[in-house]
């Protein structure tokens, strides 16, 4: 982990975001995860700055003293010594007059350039002025107006600097003093401290050590309970607990072998040299890992393999008949994988550990994941499990349930309810694989380590809980009319549109904020150099992609009718999961963006549900 350079309470010179001006600031805190310093300016403004935007006061004072230490006589002496003895005086006078003319021309060009830029920027019609001329109400308040004026001023400073650098209009003395401008008054007294920042995880989630210990047993028990309830003739919550099967019936070596074959089959597709290779976000040490984007190709190859098996009369209903055993096999494999991941993480260097899974507590780090990106050569275990075996296994399980329904109920066609569930969830999976590159910016990849939480979630929870609606419909068929099916389809399309358009808007902005196609978007600038979107879907609620997720989850459950609440477990779970993730995002963004995030929350008050939450 990179060492911290400035201590809390130390008075340093901080660069104002978007300019070359340095002001006296006091370091108040340091974030180990984002490696940003929170500093306080003399007017009380608090911002988060990178270490490259902070300099010590001694460097400014030393440079200033060096520039003013030589007397005029010494400077003149040095100039006279530098002249060639054989050079005629007339030539010297001509060259000096020529240099003065050159300097005058430079000053004139600089003044004209600066004035022209000021006129262009100050008299550029703003969006608010256009609204007023069109008779539309202005929705911005006084704080937004002042921030826009500041933003215009910063844009002017940056444009002037760019022009001066581009055409070499800056004098040598000005070039030396470019980054040495600072305020003269001193208002903060330095507070000396020898405390060094710790790389350990300080804030524990999921109830800390005790909560994570319970979750290691509670999550597999929940999966077992849901699957047993779906097998009952009356899957009412009042019939608790369901009859437990014999322990020997939950395990079969052949089923475990089929699961291993599926896992390594997907690993083989992952290693195929097809698809582009992209870089992930920079790690704490500045290094970027490379990822091959070929998930959609792997899905096409998997579909071709499944189609071939069906062509040769392979009974895919085998998945339905041994569904409980497949779930137990997946849980056992995820536990073994988690143990391997934790043991190998003990030898990982400090910089490779996850910021959220380095608490020093065995159970907590085992659950959340101790190592951030465990790899075997170029094979990234976390990235592979995130989208491949579990997500594609979800689609295969749904197809097996559709075929099992037709065979058990002697139907020539699957029911309309089963078709809707399969179609909606297939769209969701294909969308995730088609936009695979967007996964690299999620918290799962950038922040969470790879431990039991993600291993069990990717390999067990996703394929066996997300397919709960299809599994339920096999034993409890529901007949729905075409108008009802059309209404449910419209609801799913609305949720998908919100989900996909919001994510695309965010990903396109992250990839290229200067894209002319995104010029209509408004942003709040932050000290990190990034912007917070306040228009489009992200100006409607803070997490519009979560809103789309919840609407789609509801559409997946509605084809199961209202006889039992069991098919709606996924909706309830999804709401709880997204509320938890939203709370994590809020905490992370508040620490990362500081006052800019507070302004964003004032501008966009609703988190997920408009006018509700």
Automatic annotation (TrEMBL):
<feature type="region of interest" description="Disordered">
    <location>
        <begin position="53"/>
        <end position="109"/>
    </location>
</feature>
<dbReference type="GO" id="GO:0003677">
    <property type="term" value="F:DNA binding"/>
</dbReference>
<feature type="transmembrane region" description="Helical">
    <location>
        <begin position="454"/>
        <end position="474"/>
    </location>
</feature>
<keyword id="KW-1133">Transmembrane helix</keyword>
<keyword id="KW-0152">Cholesterol biosynthesis</keyword>
<keyword id="KW-0444">Lipid biosynthesis</keyword>
<dbReference type="GO" id="GO:0005637">
    <property type="term" value="C:nuclear inner membrane"/>
</dbReference>
<feature type="domain" description="Tudor">
    <location>
        <begin position="4"/>
        <end position="62"/>
    </location>
</feature>
<keyword id="KW-0756">Sterol biosynthesis</keyword>
<keyword id="KW-1207">Sterol metabolism</keyword>
<dbReference type="Pfam" id="PF01222">
    <property type="entry name" value="ERG4_ERG24"/>
</dbReference>
<feature type="transmembrane region" description="Helical">
    <location>
        <begin position="249"/>
        <end position="272"/>
    </location>
</feature>
<keyword id="KW-0812">Transmembrane</keyword>
<dbReference type="InterPro" id="IPR002999">
    <property type="entry name" value="Tudor"/>
</dbReference>
<feature type="transmembrane region" description="Helical">
    <location>
        <begin position="210"/>
        <end position="229"/>
    </location>
</feature>
<feature type="transmembrane region" description="Helical">
    <location>
        <begin position="520"/>
        <end position="541"/>
    </location>
</feature>
<feature type="transmembrane region" description="Helical">
    <location>
        <begin position="293"/>
        <end position="312"/>
    </location>
</feature>
<keyword id="KW-0443">Lipid metabolism</keyword>
<comment type="similarity">
    <text>Belongs to the ERG4/ERG24 family.</text>
</comment>
<keyword id="KW-0256">Endoplasmic reticulum</keyword>
<keyword id="KW-0597">Phosphoprotein</keyword>
<dbReference type="InterPro" id="IPR019023">
    <property type="entry name" value="Lamin-B_rcpt_of_tudor"/>
</dbReference>
<dbReference type="GO" id="GO:0006695">
    <property type="term" value="P:cholesterol biosynthetic process"/>
</dbReference>
<feature type="compositionally biased region" description="Basic and acidic residues">
    <location>
        <begin position="98"/>
        <end position="109"/>
    </location>
</feature>
<keyword id="KW-0753">Steroid metabolism</keyword>
<feature type="compositionally biased region" description="Low complexity">
    <location>
        <begin position="55"/>
        <end position="75"/>
    </location>
</feature>
<feature type="transmembrane region" description="Helical">
    <location>
        <begin position="480"/>
        <end position="499"/>
    </location>
</feature>
<feature type="transmembrane region" description="Helical">
    <location>
        <begin position="324"/>
        <end position="343"/>
    </location>
</feature>
<feature type="transmembrane region" description="Helical">
    <location>
        <begin position="561"/>
        <end position="580"/>
    </location>
</feature>
<dbReference type="InterPro" id="IPR001171">
    <property type="entry name" value="ERG24_DHCR-like"/>
</dbReference>
<keyword id="KW-0153">Cholesterol metabolism</keyword>
<feature type="compositionally biased region" description="Basic residues">
    <location>
        <begin position="76"/>
        <end position="97"/>
    </location>
</feature>
<dbReference type="GO" id="GO:0050613">
    <property type="term" value="F:Delta14-sterol reductase activity"/>
</dbReference>
<feature type="region of interest" description="Disordered">
    <location>
        <begin position="127"/>
        <end position="146"/>
    </location>
</feature>
<dbReference type="GO" id="GO:0005789">
    <property type="term" value="C:endoplasmic reticulum membrane"/>
</dbReference>
<dbReference type="Pfam" id="PF09465">
    <property type="entry name" value="LBR_tudor"/>
</dbReference>
<keyword id="KW-0963">Cytoplasm</keyword>
<keyword id="KW-0539">Nucleus</keyword>
<keyword id="KW-0752">Steroid biosynthesis</keyword>
<comment type="pathway">
    <text>Steroid biosynthesis; cholesterol biosynthesis.</text>
</comment>
<dbReference type="InterPro" id="IPR018083">
    <property type="entry name" value="Sterol_reductase_CS"/>
</dbReference>
<protein>
    <recommendedName>
        <fullName>Delta(14)-sterol reductase LBR</fullName>
        <ecNumber>1.3.1.70</ecNumber>
    </recommendedName>
</protein>
């Amino acid at each position: 982990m990179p060492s911290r350079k400035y201590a809390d309470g130390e008075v340093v010179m901080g660069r104002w975001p978007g300019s070359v001006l340095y002001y006296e600031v006091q370091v108040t805190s340091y974030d180990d995860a984002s490696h940003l310093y929170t500093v306080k300016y003399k007017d009380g403004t608090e911002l988060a700055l990178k270490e490259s935007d902070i300099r010590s006061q001694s460097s400014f004072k030393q440079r200033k003293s060096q520039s003013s230490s030589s007397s005029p006589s010494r400077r003149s002496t040095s100039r006279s010594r530098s002249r060639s003895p054989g050079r005629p005086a007339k030539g010297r006078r001509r060259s000096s007059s020529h240099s003065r003319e050159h300097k005058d021309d430079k000053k004139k060009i600089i003044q004209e350039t600066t004035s022209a830029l000021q006129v262009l920027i100050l008299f550029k019609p703003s969006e608010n002025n256009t609204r007023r001329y069109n008779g539309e109400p202005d929705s911005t308040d006084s704080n937004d107006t002042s921030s826009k004026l500041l933003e215009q001023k910063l844009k002017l400073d940056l444009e002037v600097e760019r022009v001066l650098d581009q055409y070499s209009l800056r004098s040598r003395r000005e070039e030396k003093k470019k980054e040495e401008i600072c305020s003269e008054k001193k208002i903060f007294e330095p507070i000396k401290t020898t405390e060094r920042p710790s790389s350990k995880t300080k804030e524990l989630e999921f109830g800390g050590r005790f909560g994570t210990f319970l979750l290691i047993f509670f999550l597999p028990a929940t999966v077992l309970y849901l699957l047993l309830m779906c097998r009952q003739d009356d899957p009412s919550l009042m019939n608790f607990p369901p009859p437990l099967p014999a322990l020997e019936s939950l395990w079969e070596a052949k089923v475990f072998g089929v699961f291993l074959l599926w896992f390594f089959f997907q690993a083989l597709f992952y290693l195929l040299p097809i698809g582009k290779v992209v870089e992930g976000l920079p790690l704490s040490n500045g290094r970027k890992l490379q990822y091959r984007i070929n998930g959609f190709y792997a899905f096409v190859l998997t579909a071709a393999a499944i189609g071939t098996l069906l062509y040769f009369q392979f009974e895919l209903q085998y998945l339905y008949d041994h569904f409980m055993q497949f779930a137990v096999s997946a849980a056992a494999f995820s536990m073994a994988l988690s143990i391997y991941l934790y043991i190998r993480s003990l030898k990982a260097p400090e910089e490779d550990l996850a910021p959220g899974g380095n608490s020093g507590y065995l159970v907590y780090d085992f659950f959340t994941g101790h190592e951030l990106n465990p790899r075997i050569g170029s094979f990234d275990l976390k990235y592979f499990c995130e989208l491949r075996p579990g997500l594609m296994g979800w689609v295969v399980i749904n197809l097996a349930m559709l075929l099992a329904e037709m065979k058990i109920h002697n139907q020539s066609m699957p029911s309309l309810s089963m078709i809707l569930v399969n179609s909606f969830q297939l769209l969701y999976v294909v969308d995730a694989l088609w936009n695979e590159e967007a996964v690299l910016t999620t918290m799962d990849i950038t922040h969470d380590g790879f431990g039991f939480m993600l291993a069990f979630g990717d390999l067990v929870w996703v394929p066996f809980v997300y397919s709960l609606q299809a599994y339920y419909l096999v034993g409890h068929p529901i007949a729905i009319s075409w108008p009802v099916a059309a209404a449910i389809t419209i609801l799913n399309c609305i949720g998908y549109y919100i989900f996909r358009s919001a994510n695309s808007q965010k990903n396109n902005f992250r990839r290229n904020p200067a894209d002319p196609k995104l010029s209509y978007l408004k942003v709040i600038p932050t000290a990190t150099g990034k912007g917070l979107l306040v228009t489009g879907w992200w100006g409607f609620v803070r997490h519009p992609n979560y809103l789309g997720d919840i609407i789609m989850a509801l559409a997946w459950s509605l084809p199961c009718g209202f006889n039992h609440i069991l098919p709606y477990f996924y909706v309830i779970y999804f709401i709880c999961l997204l509320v938890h993730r939203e709370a994590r995002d809020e905490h992370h963004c508040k620490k990362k963006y500081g006052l800019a995030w507070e302004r964003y929350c004032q501008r966009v008050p609703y988190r997920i549900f408009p006018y509700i939450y």
